[in-house]
Amino acid sequence: MKGYSALAGRYLKQQRKRSVLTVIGIILSVALISAIGTMAMSIKDNLYKEAVYDNGSYHFGYAETDSKLYDELTNNVLVDKVGAMKQSATTQVQDSVTLTLKEVNKDALELAPLHLAAGRAPQSEGEIMLEEWILPYLPGEPELGGTTTLNGPDGQPRTYTVSGLLNNSRSSQLNFSSSVIALRDDVGASAGELTLLVTLRPGVDISDHMQQFSKLAEDTFMANLMVLSYMGESPNDNFNQVMAVIFGTLIGLVVLSTAAVIYNIFHISVLERIRQFGLLRTLGATPSQIRGLVFREASVLAAIGIPLGLLCGWGVLWLIITLMVEAGFRVLSLEQFELSWRPWVLIGSVGVGLLSVYLAAWLPARKAASVSPVDAVRGAGSIVRESYRRFRLPSPLQAFGVGGNMAAKNIRRNRSKFRITSFSVIISVTLFIVFHYFTQEMFTLTSSSNGEDRIAFSVTRSYQVESEDRQAEDFLTEAQIEAIKAVPGVHGVYGRYGSFGLEALVPKKMVNQEFLDISQMQYAEMTDGGVAYSRVYTSLLKYDNARLKEAASYLVDGTADPEKLKAMNGVLLVQAVKPEDPDTGKKTILDLTSYQVGDKLLLDLSGGAEGDGAAAASEVTVGGILSEAPFGYLYEANSLRVMAPIDVYDGLVGGNEATRPIDLVRDGIDIAMEDGADSGPAREALRNLTNETKGAYLVDTAASQKEQRQFNLQMKIFIYGFLVVIGLIGSLNIVNTVQTNLLLRRREFGLLQAVGMTLGQLKRMATLEGVWFGLLGAFWGLVLGIGISYLLFVQLTNLQGMAFRFPWGGSLICCAAAFAVGLFSVQGPLRRLAKTNLIDSLREEN
Amino acid sequence: MNSIIEIDKLSKTYGKDSTKVEALREVGFDVAQGEFVAIVGSSGSGKSTLLHMLGGLDHPTSGTVRIDGENLYALKERERAVFRRRKIGFIFQSFNLIPVLNVEENIGLPLLLDHRQPDKEYVRDLIRTLGLEERRKHLPSELSGGQQQRVAIGRALAYRPAIVLADEPTGNLDSANSREVMELLKLAVRQYHQTVVVISHDMNIAAEADRVLRMQDGRLVSDTRGGNRE
């Protein structure tokens, strides 16, 4: 032995059990931090990538501007790239498809949201790229790499080479119009209307300079808000501040819980050995030497625990995500699924781990250093005087006989041990609840996913067919639809129908005043039979059984069963809307009206012929209320959406004079794919279908649908993975805390057995203690969880108005889990206790 | 006479009012270098408190303790710890060895605490004298009670302290081991010219000392020199 400090190592080695428990605590804490850090960064990166995919990677831009501004921007030292785009000549191909030539410079190719499906971007002025579906319509029907003739910028025909194909867009296919992207390096200097996309140089603070650039052309300035937000460069200071507060709170919570876990175990470990430290004091060790010993122990444990913690955190993350991907979310291809490994997450985890360890060692070290040597030499046993408290309230545990009585006394016996143990359990529960709330709301805020996202193909009646030929009968037969449904990978086939715009007569008292305040909407009003009605815009949609089936998963209340709806002349209602406050631009999700299932809904299909009164309106029953629309936009800004089953719709709309039979029939189908399924077989089947059906036209958006869906799925995996990691680490933390408490009390248990406590009584006592900590953790965890979630909610509403939706289900399950973990975690140590020799436990030196 | 311990009007009171206990009441005496002193008295007579005061472990309510000319309680906490390490050797009834250190390391510990390497020759000589040569690398848990107490004696002597304080050193030992331990303590006085103060309620132990101080109710009631030492 070189010096006294080697004692630290000896202690650790000899007290292997305690050391292992402490190291496990450190591992769990560091794992938690690194996993959360990595997860959070991955989510942010995923959102950022999605925003760039949707909107392009430019920071801000100008619409409808000219070359003067282009020059000014390119000469600005802060500016990195300026993408310029100009719309020029259009070409009508095959009399039906309108193609608009868009001349762009190289920077624009990079900054605009253009997504190549095949080939490459144009590299010279004679090259173009366009959506894949256009190829057969082009003169000469070229393949990729082939040539075609389109109107050039001067309006004269010109030959272009197709160098690249873009992902198909649904709207362009349905509208029969699209863009042709051609390279022109000097487009920025050309005359005419330009759209400019700008990025600033790396290192330049974007949000600080935004104002300056918006002043250059205030009317046409547009910031790429989503992308900037995820870069932390939102021009809206409020947003950045809210993000700082939210992430500050979450990180604070994690650090606190980490420090608590390590402190807990360390504290107990030092307390149990405090006599040893007292002994050293009698031999002339100074308090600072004792503190040094404790810190040395802490350093050794940290050196073992922190690297293992990092490995564990990432290991668990990797494992969970792999399992989740394997289990259900078969993401298209795993290569696209990326976790973001950031060095600063690693450094941060190590830093927080070290900080927690030393913070946790500080108090116990002080306690060890200040122990009185007299107490140490005064004989055997623990010399920590436990301040025994009598409590005024009888504990419910006392109902469980001697074991319960002892448990009640043990739990409160040592105030600091009690506090640390319960804090550790409480923080685990709180952490889970708060993260559950936060991830749920973040998902609502960032994701706009419904059944529409799954639609990869549509088959519609072609506009090329003369309208006289169109029959007033459903397009495509049931048999044809069934055949498509049976193709592997197809999730569902939904009929496409027209919709009907109308006004609902809503009793004024059922219109949400808060909505009116925010949106500043003023609906026309009328009074009939003494009841005041607001005429609220409503779109009426026809839902076939396949769509209704999909709608069922959005039900808040009621039913989406076609038969039941038909029987009650019922409809589905989406009354949740997302109006924008015209003053602040802030959007809020809330209910426009307060309809309940079973209420009668009055629909005026007369086309706004006021004065007809409520009697003239058609009456339907609200059969089900949906949280958001299953297809189309999730929320309207200020109108209701009503989904009617086929018979109900036909009954309502069919009676209207303006309705032609053609308006009621199926116009085509939308085909949704399973996640990750190969769209090949479906495409093949649909091509055959369109070939054999006269006037059928296939809209193919499988590629971009797949990519879009990928983002949403990744978000889901991240969020559930996140919760699983937190839940797992939280549970392990509870297990470790409760077990540490028990294992370090072997001598006491031996003593109790020696005075005649049976093993059964002992077990009951320990079990009740575990259960009590579980219950306590669940209760206070819930209270704290709600509190902190509410604080986060207050911040989040600054971004987007919403109601406080506390995740009761998940939280209560979490509480039950804490209780169960408390109960089961004592069983292991108890079994071991039963096997140990009584004399050995009594002899055990503390 | 060269006094190594000087105690003057030493009092110690625990508690207040109704729970007040006067453990020591104005105790005073001197001990000369190389003396073997026994302090005897019944349980609760204040002898342990007196020993703790001598060792600088507890604070007196009033009075002074001088060891080797140094006023112990005028020192700061840290200085007192260093003083204890260098000038005072402790032997306890329950041995109080550091369980994670072997015999040799336990003996050398006071020097290590002082960032010094033990004098190997001296330590080996000590171990030989204590009869622990075969057990040098054993942990305390691998030793008998008598052997453990011998290690404790070795530890107390390792720094060649000014005084050795022994609190019921034979209390946990059988008679053969007790005799052996007492012989070793006497040997320390003879061979290393140590000053030894032993607390005991065993009159046989007291009979081995040069001088016997008797405590009763916190007071020194008798001071007998020249016991039965041969």
Description of the structure:
Chain A has 846 residues and is an alpha+beta fold. Among the domains of chain A are: 1-55 and 239-381, no CATH class; 63-201, no CATH class; 499-543 and 555-662, no CATH class. In chain A, β6 and β7 form a beta hairpin. Mean pLDDT of chain A is 82; it is low at 330-335 and 380-386. With 230 residues, chain B is α/β, with parallel strands linked by helices. Chain B has a six-stranded mixed β-sheet, with helices on both faces. In chain B, α3 (103-113) packs parallel to α5 (145-158), α4 runs antiparallel to α5 (145-158) and α5 runs parallel beside α6.
Spatial gap, N to C terminus of chain B = 22 Å
CATH domain class name of chain B:
Alpha Beta
Mean pLDDT of chain A: 82
Total beta strand runs of chain A: 24
Number of helices of chain A: 27
Total strand count of chain B, please? Answer: 10
Report the order of strands and helices of chain B.
EEEHEEHEHHHEHEHEE
Envelope shape of chain B: globular
Mean pLDDT of chain B: 87
Report the helical percentage of chain A: 40-55%
Domain count of chain B: the total is 1
Q: Label the CATH architecture of chain B.
A: 3-Layer(aba) Sandwich
Q: How much strand content do the residues of chain B show?
A: 25-35%
Structural class of chain A: alpha+beta
Estimate the strand proportion of chain A. Answer: 15-25%
SSE blueprint:
The complex is a heterodimer of chains A (846) and B (230).
Chain A: H1 6-14, H2 16-55, E1 60-65, H3 67-74, E2 79-93, E3 97-104, H4 106-111, E4 116-119, E5 127-131, E6 147-151, E7 157-166, H5 170-175, E8 177-183, E9 194-200, H6 206-214, E10 221-223, H7 225-230, H8 237-271, H9 274-282, H10 287-327, H11 343-369, H12 373-377, H13 401-413, H14 415-446, E11 455-461, H15 478-485, E12 490-496, E13 499-507, H16 513-519, E14 524-528, E15 531-543, H17 545-551, E16 555-558, H18 562-567, E17 570-574, E18 576-577, E19 590-591, E20 600-604, E21 618-626, E22 640-645, H19 646-653, H20 661-664, E23 668-673, H21 680-692, E24 696-700, H22 702-743, H23 746-754, H24 759-796, H25 808-825, H26 827-835, H27 838-843
Chain B: E1 3-14, E2 21-32, E3 36-40, H1 47-54, E4 62-67, E5 70-71, H2 77-87, E6 88-91, H3 103-113, H4 120-130, H5 145-158, E7 163-167, H6 175-192, E8 195-200, H7 203-206, E9 211-216, E10 219-225
Parallel strand pairs in B: 3-8, 3-9, 6-7, 7-8
Antiparallel strand pairs in B: 1-2, 1-4, 4-5, 9-10
Helix pairs in contact in B: 3-5, 4-5, 5-6
